[in-house]
Amino acid sequence: MTTGVDLGQPQAQAIRSDEDVVRVRQLVRSVAVAVKLSLVDQTKVVTAASELARNTLVYGGGGSVEVMIADNGRRKGVQIVFDDSGPGIPDLDLALTDGYTTGGGLGLGLSGARRLVDEFQIETSAESGTRITVTKWSR
Ligand SMILES: Nc1ncnc2c1ncn2[C@@H]1O[C@H](COP(=O)(O)OP(=O)(O)OP(=O)(O)O)[C@@H](O)[C@H]1O
Ligand SMILES: [Mg+2]
């Protein structure tokens, strides 16, 4: 299939609307297929990306994402970086607790996303907002 998109290059996508969240899901799915993740792992990383994109939109006030192929010499994977300039997350341990929400959600997005990927890194501050990097490797 020709999509006109070079998945060998990092793909940037704004996150400003529900439609953008759908685009993020599609982009992550495409890269997951390109690096031959299993169907189950594709679904895990797409689900994680969906939750993180939604948080970027709702709590970060919008932002951006970059989706790229990761390669550690042994395996390939999908790496996704979410960025916002929102208020930051004051207490990370609390935010990563199942059921904790400040927005009337289920409080399962962040904690669930962490369990669905292989690598999960958060940098957050009131000054610079929040950057979350996740990686899912093929096995
Ligand atoms: N990008 C962000 N910027 C600021 N705060 C955030 C961000 N992402 C998450 N948070 C904070 O972490 C809390 C937990 O996030 P999480 O995704 O687990 O739950 P939720 O979004 O409230 O509910 P759910 O995702 O289950 O619908 C949020 O309620 C919010 O306070
Ligand atoms: Mg959430």
Strand proportion, as a percent range, falls in 25-35%
Q: Work out the helix count.
A: 4
Strand order, main sheet: write it out.
Answer: 1-2-3-5-4
Shape: globular
How is the main sheet built?
Answer: 5 strands, antiparallel
C-alpha Rg (nearest Å): 14 Å
List bound small molecules: adenosine-5'-triphosphate, magnesium ion
Q: Residue ranges: pLDDT <50 for 5 or more in a row? A: none
Structural class: alpha+beta
Mean pLDDT: 96
Helix content: 25-40%
Order of helices and strands: EHHEEHHEE
Instruction: Note the gap between the termini.
Output: 24 Å
Query: How many strand segments?
Result: 5
Q: Can you walk through the features of this model?
A:
The chain is of the alpha+beta class. It has four helices and five strands; from the N terminus they run βααββααββ. It has a five-stranded antiparallel β-sheet, covered by helices on one side. A hairpin with a 4-residue loop joins strand 2 (63-71) and strand 3 (76-84). The longest helix has 20 residues, at 39-58. The two termini are 24 Å apart. The structure holds adenosine-5'-triphosphate and magnesium ion (MG). Magnesium ion (MG) binds at residues 51, 54-55, 105, 109. Magnesium ion binds next to helix 2.
Topology overview:
Elements: E1 11-15, H1 18-34, H2 39-58, E2 63-71, E3 76-84, H3 92-95, H4 109-116, E4 119-125, E5 129-137
Antiparallel strand pairs: 1-2, 2-3, 3-5, 4-5
The structure holds adenosine-5'-triphosphate and magnesium ion.
